Amino acid sequence: MEYVDLTYTQVALAALLILVNGAISLALRLGMERTLAWAAVRTVLQLFLIGLVLEKVFQVDRWYVVVALLALMTLVAGLTAGKRNKRRFPGIWFNTVVSLWAATWLVTAYALFVVIQDTATWYQPQYAIPLMGMVLGNSLNGTSIGLNSFTDTLVSHREQVEMALTLGATRWEAARMPVQHAVRTGMIPIINSMMVVGIVSLPGMMTGQLLSGTSPMAAVKYQIVIMFLIASATALCTVGVVLLSFYRLFSAEHQFLFRRISD
């Protein structure tokens, strides 16, 4: 099957579709025109920039270059996850970065060393970078959703949490419900995706492989691997960031440090 290499003109024609969003914003007076324009510009610039970077990385093919790029991706993802949370507290950036770093690197390492064993090197950019990118992107969403749910629940249920502590409950007993709710909420998006994948949607990696001429069954096998990598990484990231935040907001003396949370 012949691969169709898109020209810049064809890409520009696709980019014109953003005008549909702009027209809707104008018609309904949403006031999103500038945001949409900036998002469109950033999309183009960021993707072309990463394209240039990846071409260089693929040419160099050195482990330290790949690791440096993966570290940068992870750091940006961790900071973004913390930024998305509408409530702040001391250590939030540390929590998101560490949670994402530990979980995504562990899961990606498992994929490279255990699942995909036939690569020439473990750091082969063709596999390491796309795998990490997909795992990071989805884990970031679960992390930010779970963290946001945890802080929101603590604020909205402050009286119940403090009453439980006053009556002699431990910090874990008082915070168990917010923790459980946060982890459950953070995992909902990936579970929903797994429920409809292949029936309602064809994920990005599978679509890309099909467009490049890969056989459907080969693309399916890769996509199955990706879905389970994402599911496990999302669960680990969500649990990690919620538990780290729990220890930040509850002292060893079983006190709820509510004043640490700011809007």
Please describe the topology of this protein.
Layout: H1 8-15, H2 18-27, H3 33-60, H4 63-84, H5 92-115, H6 125-156, H7 158-166, H8 171-196, H9 204-211, H10 216-249
Helix pairs in contact: 2-3, 4-5, 4-6, 5-6, 5-10, 6-8, 6-10, 7-8, 8-10, 9-10
Q: Care to count the β-strands?
A: 0
Give, in order, the helices and strands: HHHHHHHHHH
Helical fraction equals over 70%
**Tally of structural domains:** 2
Q: Can you tell me the residue ranges where pLDDT is under 50 for at least 5 consecutive residues?
A: none
Number of helices: 10
Radius of gyration: 21 Å
Strand content: under 5%
User: Biggest sheet, open or closed, and with what strands and sense?
Assistant: none
- Average pLDDT confidence is 89
User: Could you say which structural class the secondary elements and strand pairing correspond to?
Assistant: mainly alpha
First-last Cα distance: 54 Å
Shape: globular
